[in-house]
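Bit of a strange request maybe. I'm writing a small parser for structure token strings and I need a real example to test against, not something I typed by hand. Could someone generate the tokens for this chain?
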Amino acid sequence: MPSAGFMSPDLRAQGAALTWSSWGLIAAAALLGGASRENPLRLAAVGLIALVPLCLALGQTTWSRAPSAWTFALAILALAIAIPLVQLIPLPPAVWTRLPDGGARD
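Reply from user aminoacidic:
Good idea to test on real output. This should exercise your parser:
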């Protein structure tokens, strides 16, 4: 990685934007409660604010430098998105009743 003295003004500006957006995310998490269950809207706001540094970081990537590392990172990101989406798919009643205590009704 080149030193800051040899970086173009565009790269310096992108790095500064990423740095400030990351600090903004930390401040938002501290002010809005981070992972509190009391107010899900605050938690959603922190999640949406987290998209800003993520998008800035993805915009700065050099995709040809280490493709295997990016493949692994993108696979983890895809799993982090896919797992909650798969959990939203309802099970058919026949499968649901075959699960342990699936037939029990409260």
